[in-house]
Amino acid sequence: MDDSQNELSARDARAHFAEVITRAQGGTPTIITRNGQAVAAVVPIEDFNALEDAIDRYFAREADRDLAENPDAPTYSMAEAIAAIFEDEPDHGVA
């Protein structure tokens, strides 16, 4: 796989999986395509963690802002929030 290449078909990514992982370890993301459309990315774990942290900070700021604007609003535990998300989705129940 050419070092300048950052996009691979799913078939090529499978054939060169070790190289895709090595590129991610080296800081280079690889976009995986199927039928010419980007469907996934293999990214360095540091990039993934940074994105997750940014999302968490964003939602925490939004929650703090909402609570400051309406301090009498009900609050929910994480377990209650997750249960509410999945309560109408029977495929996500515990087996």
Automatic annotation (TrEMBL):
| Family classification | Belongs to the phD/YefM antitoxin family.
Instruction: Return the Pfam families for the record.
Output: PhdYeFM_antitox
Q: Which residues cross the membrane?
A: none
Q: What is this protein called?
A: Antitoxin
Query: What does the UniProt record say this protein does?
Result: Antitoxin component of a type II toxin-antitoxin (TA) system.
Natural source organism: Candidatus Protofrankia datiscae
Q: Which Gene3D superfamilies match?
A: YefM-like domain (3.40.1620.10)
